[in-house]
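User: quick one, sequence for these tokens?
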């Protein structure tokens, strides 16, 4: 049987940046971006990770992450859970002493993710074009330390998100983060809607884009 460190994954990139989203925003973080995604969201800003990349071993990823000498690691994509090796990778990163978060689309089951990992689940609003891909059973697996992110393209998306908050009691399960699609929804308008409706959510902008624009690897 192949040792876990020899498992092979398709890797788009590894880089050091500040965390641009979630409650960990601003923290120095190593990003491990895996290749591949079964979704095609209309506003996706990482389409370069759909294909290509480099095949590496799990052990090589752990070694490269260790070279940055920072505590926080975020495994992202694409959709990282689309690769079978993602689960062992998450466990190995935790075993190595890292504080690990997972950014996942919400279309794939999160129930088997190592419990030490913070799951940041991205619910897809209608403006994404992929609302039908949401796996609603994931809501039952959310813990207080996990987070739900909803990216909104317009006021219709906002109304959809507000209704889902009510229907599923999402804010009682974990933190809910609402983000505007860059260039499509005025951030100030979203902030005003949240204040108007007294929504129990966190408004967020993508800090890395404020700092560096849309440059890959930042």
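Assistant:
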């Amino acid at each position: 049987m192949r040792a876990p460190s020899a498992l092979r994954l398709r890797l788009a990139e590894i880089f050091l940046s500040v965390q641009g989203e979630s409650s960990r925003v601003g923290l120095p973080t190593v990003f491990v971006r895996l290749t591949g995604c079964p979704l095609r969201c209309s506003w996706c800003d990482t389409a370069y990770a759909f294909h290509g990349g480099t095949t590496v071993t799990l052990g090589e990823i752990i070694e490269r992450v260790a070279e940055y000498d920072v505590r926080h690691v975020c495994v992202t994509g694409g959709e990282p859970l689309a690769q079978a090796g993602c689960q062992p990778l998450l466990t190995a990163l935790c075993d190595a002493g890292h504080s690990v978060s997972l950014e996942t689309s919400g279309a794939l089951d999160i129930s088997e993710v190592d419990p030490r990992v913070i799951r940041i689940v991205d619910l897809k609003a209608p403006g994404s074009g992929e609302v039908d891909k949401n796996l609603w059973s994931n809501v039952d697996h959310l813990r207080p330390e996990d987070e739900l992110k909803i990216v909104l393209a317009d006021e219709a998306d906002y109304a959809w998100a507000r209704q889902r908050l009510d229907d599923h009691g999402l804010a009682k399960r974990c933190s809910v983060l609402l983000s505007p699609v860059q260039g499509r929804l005025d951030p100030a308008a979203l902030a005003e809607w949240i204040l108007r409706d007294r929504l129990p959510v966190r408004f967020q902008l993508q800090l890395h884009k404020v700092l560096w624009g849309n440059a890959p690897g930042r």
